[in-house]
Write a structure and sequence with these properties.
The protein has 2 helices and 2 strands. By secondary structure, it is α+β, with helices and mostly antiparallel strands. It has one domain. Strands 1-2 form a two-stranded antiparallel sheet. The protein is extended and about 50 Å long. The two termini are 29 Å apart.
Length: 70
């Protein structure tokens, strides 16, 4: 049971960090960058944040490489 508790705490911490990145990222234009595809036709809307996803992936890769290599 102790391992499940640690797993849930880790997952919760990861979700909090992702939430903070999304909130702070929105203030810097994340989600509205050139290359993010936004299509609206009538009541149908499709949003593909391609460039925003690439930037988040790059930042997380750098962060995790710094943390793991210690």
């Amino acid at each position: 049971m102790q391992s499940f508790g640690r797993l849930f705490l880790t997952m919760g911490l990861v979700l909090v960090i992702i939430g903070l990145v999304l909130i702070v990222g929105e203030k810097f234009g994340l989600g509205k960058l050139p290359g993010d595809i936004y299509i609206k036709k009538g009541s149908f809307t499709v949003f593909f944040p391609i460039v925003s996803s690439l930037i988040i992936s790059l930042l997380l890769t750098i962060l995790l490489n710094v943390i793991i290599r210690r």
